[in-house]
Every structure is written in structure tokens, then in C-alpha cells.
Amino acid sequence: MEKEHQLISDYDLHLLSQGTHYRSWEKLGAHIIATEEGPATHFALWAPNAERVSVIGDFNGWDPAAHPMARIGASGYWQTLVPEPGHGALYKYEITSKYHDFRAEKTDPFAFFSEIRPATASIVWDLGGYEWGDREWLASRQTRHNHEAAIAVYEMHLGSWMRAEDGGWLVYREHPDVMTMAEESTSYPMVSRPTYLGGLGFGFKWNMGWMHDTLEYMSHDPIHRSYHHYRLTFSLLYAYHENFLLPFSHDEVVHGKGSMIGKMVGDDWRKFANLRLLYGYMYTHPGKKLLFMGNEIGQWSEWNHDTGLDWALLDYPSHQGLHRWVRDLNTLLRGEPALHELDNSPAGFAWIDCNDSRQSVLSFIRRGKNPDDVVVCIGNFTPVPRHEYRLGVPEMGYWEEVLNSDAPIYGGSGQGNFGGKEATPLPVHGENQSLNVTLPPLAILVFRLRSDFG
């Protein structure tokens, strides 16, 4: 291959070996280039354990002898220039291993386009004439994708989210995005810290410890939960070691683990109440959120990638109520800075009372950057209503009950505080004022101070 037609320079090899080549897609894969003889396609890939590599495709009868690739020194990279294929040509790489002469046909991990299943070939595709239409989206991305933003991830498997009438898959196209999340379950440090500080550079890390502890707690009958209270509070000891995301992902609803609603204890009413309480605790706890599809409607069966979700469940009031509860949690998360701006700062959280294990009640404050952005959250993890429960609050004034998971619209029993409570100068929980509240059964309440009331 003529040197002027080689896309990979020695400097490219240096950056690729370091893992710091941030435009590697311009060098690897299939690229149509101009030569003196006319257009040709440059192919390049990394196959460090290969003895031989060839480009095969519809342009050479899928013959591995037609277009062998040349190794680039000892780098593990291979390249070749092929005159025949152009825009739309099908291709793969045939790779022969150094070990036992093993051979395999591989698609191109850097391909710009590929066949639709069940076909598997890569496709030569020229992006030169494409005009991107995402300038405004890119300009606004920084304000939406940062550690102070309200982020709730809806994890989907498109093949089983919803099926077409004929049972086929629904197809969509998506824009790439720069938010990175590490699904990492060890205590390896600084996963979500910048690389210049010695971290791995991920934006967020899944908080697997919180997930396991919380689900373990919720699996106990409420009469025994007082003995496991620490499982709800332990996460705050390490909540700010990383930029955490709280996951109830696909991993929790497969391989015999059951569904989220199936993990809850009690009869059907208590199962739904417990699940609403669990999601409410998740959305008010520091950290970004992740729910796998089906979790929001209370699907009874495990996830099955071969079938769609059971959307017909939304014909039933209990499932409708859970669905509406998750919708309203997302609405509150987006609109309430106290619930997302300081997710990764200790300044955004304070316990009111983390020690009421006897009654299985947990209460805490969330704060935003503006001192006026304050919410108070309290959860009753038993089916016993708590009347005239004294709750310390940080300020005098009227505290509006902005969310109550026991409201009838969510399938609850309808107990609560008639929209809010006025603080009185009765000290409790280390505060100079408090609310006299009713705690509904298996429910969480969120109160917000109304500066404009009265």
C-alpha cells in the first residue's frame, strides 16, 4: 500500500496504544478515499492475536484469498486498500488465530452501518455528505447531563419493551451521548472521578451496595424490619465517595430473581404499597435513578427478552396507581432542585431521625443550592399508621405535603395530612420547631416549605 494512502500513522499507533486516541473512528473501520486510480476503500482493525486477516465481502465473492490485510509492525493493527468496494458494499473480516489455526468471520466494530438481523455483515458507508441536525441538542447537553441535573434513567431492551402487531421488533434510531455509567460492584475507588486525579473517568457509578441492602430490607416482613434498620441508613456512610446512580436494573428481574412487585412481602395491597414506598425512598435518596422497563407498572413476571411487557396490566387500578406514582416522582425530581442539585455533596442531605428503628420510621432533609430549596422526607416502613408523630423541621412556616404514596390516586388508603401542616415551636429531633403529622401505612411523605403561604 502506498504510504500516502495509509490512514494510520506512527503517531496514531502511539495514541492507540495509550488508549488516548479520541478520534479512532477516523482511522479504523472502512473509509472511502480518493486515489490516482479512483475511489478505493481503506480497511483497518486491531487483531493482536491474529496470524492472518482478510477482508471478505460481496465485492470479492467472500474469498479470503482475494484481499489479505497487512500487519502494521508489532502493533496488532492490520490494514489494506481495496479498489472494488464502494458505498453500500457488504463486508466482514476473516481472522485466523495464532493458536490452533482457529478461524472466524467477524463484523467490524468500527463499521458506520450494518445489516439488520438476522444478517450480520458490516456495510461500507460514506458519512461525508451527511448533515447533522443536533446542534441545539449538543449546545444544551451540558446543562442537562451534569452532576447537578435531575437524572432518572429508564433502562430498556427494545426487543421486549413493546412488540409490533405481528410480533416483530420495533425499530428506532438514537443519538449518541456522552454520559458514562460504570456498572461496577466492587469497592474499587475513584471510578467516577476524573482521570487527571487518578480516577477512571466515568460520570457515575452504580450503587450496588445501596441496591442490595435496600432490597434485602424490603424482603423482610415489617414486623422484623426494626432489626434490619441499618440496611436503610448504611448507604449514607459512603454516599459521597462516588457520583452514584441508584439502580433497579434488568439484573434484578431475571434468572429466577422474580419481578420487583414479586419481591415485596404481604398481600397484593401491601405489595403495591411497599413498592411505592421503595420507589419513593429511591427518588428522595441522594443519587441519580435507574429503573428497568416494567418496574414502573408492577409487572408480575420476570423479564423475558422474547416477549413484550404486559402493558394490559394498566387496565387494573393498582397498576395504574403505581404507574402514576412513578410519573409523579419523576415530575417532582425534575421540578425540585433539593432532590437533585446536591446529589453528590453532603450539603444536600441531613438526617432528621435515622434511629427510630422501633417504629421503622426514617426521616431526612434534602437541600438545593438555594437555601430556600428544602424538602423534608419521612417514610413509614410498617403497615401501622402513626398518628400525632412529631417530626422536627428546619424552619417555622407551612409545610406543604407535595407527595404522599398512600393517596387514593396511587392505590393507597387515603391517609395523610390534608395537604400540609403548620410548624409549631415544639423542639424535637434537634430542631426548634416540628410538625404533628400522620404517617400512613407503608408510605413515604414529602413536605416542602411554602414561603408564600399565609
What does this structure look like?
- By secondary structure, the protein is an alpha+beta fold.
- The chain folds into three domains: 3-123, Immunoglobulins (Immunoglobulin-like); 142-339, Glycosidases (TIM Barrel); 346-450, Golgi alpha-mannosidase II (Immunoglobulin-like, Sandwich).
- Helices cover 17% and strands 26% of the residues.
- It contains eight helices and 22 strands.
- It has helices at residues 10-18, 135-144, 158-161, 208-218, 230-233, 260-263, 268-284, 317-335; strands at 29-35, 38-46, 50-57, 70-71, 77-82, 90-97, 103-106, 113-114, 122-123, 152-155, 181-182, 204-206, 244-248, 288-292, 349-353, 361-367, 374-380, 386-393, 398-404, 420-422, 433-439, 443-450.
- A six-stranded antiparallel sheet has the order 15-16-17-22-19-20.
- Strand 8 and strand 9 (122-123) form a beta hairpin.
- It is elongated, with a radius of gyration of 28 Å.
- The model has no long low-confidence stretch (mean pLDDT 92).
Observed structural traits:
single chain, 454 residues, alpha+beta, Immunoglobulin-like, TIM Barrel, 6-stranded antiparallel β-sheet, 5-stranded antiparallel β-sheet, 8 helices, 22 strands, 26% strand
Strand content: 25-35%
Radius of gyration: 28 Å
Shape category: elongated
Number of helices: 8
Q: What is the total domain count?
A: 3
The CATH H-level superfamily of the largest domain is: Glycosidases
In terms of structural class, how would the helical and strand content be classed?
A: alpha+beta
Mean pLDDT, to the nearest integer, reads 92
Q: What distance separates the N and C termini? A: 81 Å
Q: In total, how many beta strands?
A: 22
